[in-house]
Amino acid sequence: MKVELLAPGGSYETVIAALNAGADAVYTGGEKFGARANADNLTIEQLKSVIDYAHLHGRKIYLTVNTLLKENEIKKELYDYLEPLYVHGLDAVIVQDYGVLEFVRKYFPQLHVHASTQMTILGELTVKELKNKGVTRIVTPRELSISEIKKIKENCDIEIESFVHGALCYCYSGQCLLSSYIGGRSGNRGRCAQPCRMEYDVVKNGKVLNPGDSKYVLSPKDICTLKILPDIVESGVYSLKIEGRMKKPEYTAGVVSIYRKYIDLYLQFGRKKYKVDNNDIKKLNDLFNRKGFSESYYKTYNGKEMITFSKPDFRAANEGLIKEIQNKYINTNLRKNIDIFVTIKKDSPMEAVGICGENVVTVYEDLPDEAKKLPTTSDMVNEKMAKLGNTPFKVEKIETYIDDNLFVTIGKINQLKRKLIDEMTKSIIDRYKRNNALPYENVEKNTIICNDKKLETALVSNFEQYKTIEKWNRISRIYIEVSEFTRQEIEEVVNNKTKQIYIAMPYIFREKDKAYFSKEYIGMLNKFDGALIRNMEEYFWLKNIDMVKNYIFDYNVYVMNSFSQQFIRKTDDITYTVPVELNYKEMFDMGCSGQEMIIYGYMPVMTTVNCIAKSCDMCQKSKEIYSLKDRKSEYFKVKCVCDYCYNLIYNCKPLSLIDYNNKIDKLKLNSIRYSFTFESKKQIKNMIEHIDNKEYDLLFENNSEITRGHFNRGVL
Question: Where are the alpha helices (DSSP H) in 216-277?
Answer without folding.
Answer: 229-234, 249-269
